[in-house]
Amino acid sequence: MSNPSEPTDVVLIGGGIMSATLGALIKILQPDWSIRIFEKLGSVALESSNPWNNAGTGHAALCELNYMPEAPDGSVETSKAVAINEQFQVSRQLWSYLVEQGVLKSPDSFINPTPHMTFVKGEANVAYLRKRYEALLSEPLFEGIEYSDDPSVIYGWSPLLLRDRSKNEKIAATRVVSGTDVDFGSLTAQLFDYLKAEGVSTETNCTVTNLKKTRDGTWEVSLKHSVGNTPMKVNARFVFVGAGGGALHLLQKARIPEIRGFGGFPISGQFLRTDNPRVVAEHQAKVYGKAAVGAPPMSVPHLDKRVVDGQASLLFGPYAGFSPKFLKSGSWLDLPRSIRAHNLGPMLAVARDNLDLMKYLIGEVFASKSKKFEALREFMPTADPKDWYLITAGQRVQVMKKDAKRGGVLQFGTEVITSADGSIAGLLGASPGASTAVPIMLDLLERCFGDSYPGWKTQLKKMIPSLGTLLTKSPSNAEKTLKETAKVLELG
After folding, report:
1. Which residues cross the membrane (predicted)?
2. Angle between helical axes of 184-197 and 17-29 (0-180°, round to 10)
3. How much is the pLDDT for 298?
4. Where are the alpha helices (DSSP H) in 209-315?
5. What is the model's pLDDT at position 300?
6. Residues 38, 207: Cα–Cα separation, whole Å
């Protein structure tokens, strides 16, 4: 362990699933390293990792159509969906290991079996869904996927989708019974409990105000406690900025060249929620549809069963909106304060090329409560307004960056930014985010700790047996891994 006068080995900024995952990995792999964690809110997992601020899907591309869009020629490509499923299996393997080691509690405290479905209407969408299903049939990680355009079969899968629906409507659905619902808030809190038990300092109500590279190569982290506005400075050999939407500002303050050209586009959202036991009991699935024209992929409508603190609820949404805040608890000045000379061009290019998105967001912002409820009734014709209420979801900040051809592009995904010397890294972007936290952090470890990573591989292979291989290339290995993790995580 470092003595108090030495720099901290690792500083993690943000109390979400990313910092929790990275902290746990480092503590297991290098228990002698000192770690300090700073969170600006009063507890961990209150922003994007909070279970009511995200859909908790356990993104495995089993039902999310935006990972397999239809090409202009009518073909469908499986590579992105397969890659995301691979990533989720890596996360499941680590969670299984941590359950076996007693780091995580009973599996049903953070993950529960929940079939994943896709539901579409209209002849063209039905034809597309069948092509998607046929393309995935041969993929080992999508073993067991089912397709039907028979209303009686779909009714058996999810009665609420079909009750009182017109018999003349063309519909189809797919189902994968091995899907899950993940409470990332509980998972994050449990990982922080482990870190605390291992002597890791987690300081809440503590805002990082600046990051500065010093002459000796360490980072000077300037902080301010919200209680008393007490300033403080900490030196660190490595800094991870896992501050959600706040990561862009901090990486800009660090002045690393790698952040030049990056901007952020914030999107807010709401969900309709019901806790009525009678309604909840009739929907044991997560059902995704197709996004509206011009809508961002994160706004794909879905009707989800959620299990939080042992209580089942249903969520429908999200209803996208616009706010210049980069965090739910952020400032109205977040967006303008993020603009720099180096990212203004890419941001303007994104605005020029995404007029449909802007029109969609404006329509969502001014949509009436009754119009929002109409969207739910397209999924669930018998929905009763008395059973549902609106909740505000977390903020998502989509990545905008330079593009040689168009000047700038809006990226719907996550991106890890690392300095050339590997002394600082940060995560930008949103979905699939939390579900792929483990492979994202493994990639960060290899990029930022190149000298140590080879020595960690033996331990990492114990934790994640498929490390360095692709399950989809070995059907037998995929089947074995899925069964083993399902058994440990009590997924049936």
Report:
1. none
2. 40
3. 64
4. 247-254, 277-280
5. 84
6. 7
Question: Tell me, what's the pLDDT at 356?
Answer: 82
For the chain, the domains span 8-473
408 Ramachandran zone, left/alpha/beta (phi>0; psi -120 to 50)? beta
pLDDT band, residue 56 (cuts 50/70/90): low
- Residue appearing with tokens 């209303």: 151
Alpha carbon 314 to its chain's center = 19
**What tokens were used for 283?**
């929907």
Which of the four pLDDT bands, split at 50, 70 and 90, describes residue 2?
A: very low
Q: With beta carbons less than 8 A apart as the criterion, state whether 95 and 101 touch.
A: no
8-473: CATH superfamily: FAD/NAD(P)-binding domain (3.50.50.60)
Closest CA to 490 of 100, 60, 112: 112
CB under 8 Å to 289, separation ≥6 — which residues? 65, 118, 119, 120, 300, 301, 302, 379
Query: What are the distances in angstroms from CA 382 to CA 157, 286, 318?
Result: 17, 18, 19
* 414 vs 444: CA distance, rounded Å: 13
Model confidence pLDDT, tens digit, residues 73-114:
999 999 999 999 999 999 999 999 999 999 999 999 999 999
**How many residues in total does the chain contain?**
492
Helix (H, G, I), strand (E, B) or coil at 354: coil
CB-facing half-sphere around the CA of 466: CA atoms within 13 A: 28
Single-letter code of the amino acid located at 423? S
Contacts of 109 (CB under 8 A, 6+ apart): 183, 186, 190
Query: Which is nearest to 68 in space by CA: 128, 117, 146, 140?
Result: 128
Query: CB–CB of 267/396 below 8 Å?
Result: yes
- State how far the Cα of 100 lies from the Cα of 457, in Å rounded to an integer: 19
Which amino acid appears at position 464 of this protein? I
**DSSP H helices in 367-414:** 369-379
Q: Could you say which DSSP state residue 84 is in? A: H
Distance between CA 120 and CA 288 in Å, rounded? 9
Say which DSSP state 205 is in. Answer: S
Structure tokens at 76: 């469908």
Q: Is residue 267 classed as helix, strand or coil in its secondary structure? A: strand
Angle at 327 between CA 392 and CA 218, to 5 degrees: 155
116 strand-pairing partners: 176, 286
Assigned token pair, 418:
């690392």
pLDDT at 295: 67
Distance CA 393, CA 215 (A): 42
Which structure tokens are listed for 419?
């300095």
Does the structure show a pLDDT above 50 at 3?
Answer: no
| Cα angle, residue 257 at apex, residues 253 and 261 outer, rounded to 5° | 85
d(CA 185, CA 194): 14
